[in-house]
Write a structure and sequence with these properties.
Nitrilase/N-carbamoyl-D-aminoacid amidohydrolase; 6-stranded mixed beta sheet; about 30% helix
């Protein structure tokens, strides 16, 4: 059994303050006996005002939240799945980038969110992530983590089952789905999609999420989840407040489900008409 910590945040518009919050979370996770901490999408900055945000979006080498988490992870001897940060690329466009940081503070993997959140909701909310961010093009997994083989996704990726099929085929034990889900879409789809992806991949899903009223005026759904490979919700942190909770990842449960219901092994190509 591996103990993990899941962080639910109401991230704001000041990267320095967010970095301090993340450092405290690393210490709290380690003190709680976790071997790995999972944080939400955009853990270092959440600001829909692109002109204001642009002054804070920098390259990896200059990212205060990334540097702070790496230092804290090394000090605590803790792995961190840093849900994502807004990172400036060499071409001055942005990537919504996840990081996996090991217990020495080294970056073991990077994943750029593939699917851009370009939607217009009936609530009046309109989002065009692709206006500033460049989508990734690579499926990314990490071996040797405390939770075994870890697959990386971010938020809107949740709606695209082909990505999770590939992560299942690659034998991921756990899939991270950090998010900053809107309230309308969260109420309608969050739980059912998270459970479906766990079932399809026969893997644990760890979905650390943003929650509540943010400084930039948005509201996020929360309900950070841990779901087991059978689709059972082991942890739901609710939609009211930030905080940290703990859960156990059991490798025997993964093997048990894959033995009982070997859907990944049974899959066949669908004939084309």
């Amino acid at each position: 059994m591996t103990r993990i910590a899941v962080l639910q945040t109401t991230t704001g518009i000041d990267p320095a303050a967010n970095a301090q919050m993340l450092v405290r979370a690393v210490g709290e996770a380690a003190a709680g006996g976790a071997e790995m901490l999972f944080t939400p999408e955009m853990s270092g900055l959440l600001d829909r005002n692109r002109e204001r945000a642009a002054t804070h979006i920098v390259g990896e080498a200059d990212s205060e939240p990334l540097r702070a988490v790496r230092d804290a992870a090394a000090k605590a001897g803790l792995w961190v799945a840093l849900g994502s940060l807004a990172i400036r690329r060499d071409d001055d466009r942005y990537a919504n980038r996840s990081f996996v940081i090991d217990a020495t503070g080294e970056i073991r993997a990077r994943y750029d969110k593939i699917h851009m959140f370009d939607v217009s909701l009936a609530s009046g909310e309109s989002w065009r992530e692709s206006a500033a961010y460049v989508p990734g093009s690579m499926v990314v997994t990490v071996t040797g983590s405390p939770v075994g083989k870890l697959g990386l996704t971010v938020c809107y990726d949740l709606r695209f089952p082909a990505l999770f099929e590939e992560l299942g085929k690659q034998g991921c034990d756990v899939i991270a789905i950090p998010a900053s889900f809107t309230v309308p879409t969260g109420q309608a789809h969050w739980h059912v999609l998270q459970r479906a992806r766990a079932i399809e991949a026969s893997a644990y899903v760890v979905a650390a999420a943003q929650v509540g009223e943010h400084e930039d005026g948005r509201r996020t759904y929360g309900h950070s989840l841990v779901v087991d490979p059978w689709g059972e919700v082991l942890l739901d942190m609710g939609g009211e407040a930030p905080g940290m909770s703990f859960a156990e990842i059991d490798p025997a449960r993964i093997a048990e489900v894959r033995t009982q219901l070997p859907s990944l092994a049974n899959k066949r190509a669908i004939p084309k008409s």
